[in-house]
Amino acid sequence: MTEPRVRPAILDDAEAIAAAHHSAWVQTYSGLLPAEHWERDTVARRRERWRDRLSREAPGHPLVAVVDERVVGFAQSGSTRSKGGIPAVRPDELWSLYVLPEQHGTGIGVLLLNAVLLPDSLAELWVAEANPRARRFYEKHGFVPDGARFTDDLEIAEIRMVRARDEAASPP
Fold it and tell me: Under DSSP, is residue 86 helix (H, G, I), strand (E, B) or coil?
């Protein structure tokens, strides 16, 4: 196995990103979403959305983690966005970070996180409240819940986590 590396995503990565995205969602959200959701949320549908996203220049272009020339995860970051009318509190936001379930615990997530956000950047992210694995991962990397909570269109409760330069600093 070669050392994992990170590179900008290209259009030819759409299928692999869609597969990683879908696998992570199935593992994380299958117990939170109704069966009908998975009839619409397919790898093919995600592939088309990723092809569209990768074919245009847009902020937050994703980076992919590659092992043995296989895409095993991706991440995106950019300027913060308000969520459900809740204003941003940090200048940078981790928009997404997904790793194939079989790659959990291998360091791929850390590699991606550090590639899209500087380790000391003032950043925020939104994570499913019912996703303890992701919450522990982000806490390990200096993010703490700040009390903001939002329920998305799929009825999944999300909490905001923030990071300060000084990891011991209290959230706003």
Answer: strand
